[in-house]
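Researcher: Before we compare anything, I want clean individual predictions. No alignment, no superposition, just each chain on its own. First chain goes here; please echo the sequence and then give the structure tokens.
Model: Echoing the first chain and its structure:
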Amino acid sequence: MPKKEYVKWKNRVERKNLKEHRKFIDKINNIQFQAYKLKWHGITSFNTNDWVTGAGNGTYYVPVTKTRHGKKVKAIRFGYGAGN
């Protein structure tokens, strides 16, 4: 979802009262996602937000290289939440 559209949805969510807010979030949790690029130690990766309430957290995915049984292998590092 482009940033402009994300802001539109975020503003729409924030204008609702608590009951409407929860109902609306339940509906869009399954249909609205946001992904954006980020750099982690110089490596291009991406973050996804699976809900548009403006919390700014989500799940990040970073390609990395790890050593397994003495061999270097490709892996993916991921984490989630605002306090990563």
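Researcher: Okay. Second chain, same rules.
Model: Second chain and its structure:
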Amino acid sequence: MTALILIGVIAVMLWMIFLRSSMISMFWGPIVRSAGGDVALATVLSVVLYIGGLVAFGLVLLGMHWAFDGLLARAPALVLSLLYAPVAFMPMPDRDKRPYGEVRDYLMKAGATEKQARACAWATGPLAFAGLPVVAGGFFSAFVG
């Protein structure tokens, strides 16, 4: 069972890395673009919606486990965790020479200005570490009794 969980965690990380740029273009870019050129509004929208997404995901998982039992809760928890992982880890810091360089580049490709991309990445980036236990909790709830 431990090996299965470890393989699953590695698979989720690879899945997240593979889809990260697409998730930034599909979800984060439109949020930033909706702020026009306003850096503060783009940053606040990014932070509020990221935290809101984490809370909503956590509540959906808790609700599923509360309402259903066994496979009826575990299978959807696993699927939802796999689907939400790339979104939760969008702002994850990278090992670029520039802090959050990759995230900023993706945001600018999605239509953000350089200032918006910098502010959003620095404000939302640390929150990705809160996404780690949320997604891991959903993943582990699918396997742990």
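Researcher: What stands out in the second chain?
Model: Residues 2-33 form the longest helix (32 residues). Additionally, The CA atoms of residues 37 and 113 lie 7 Å apart.
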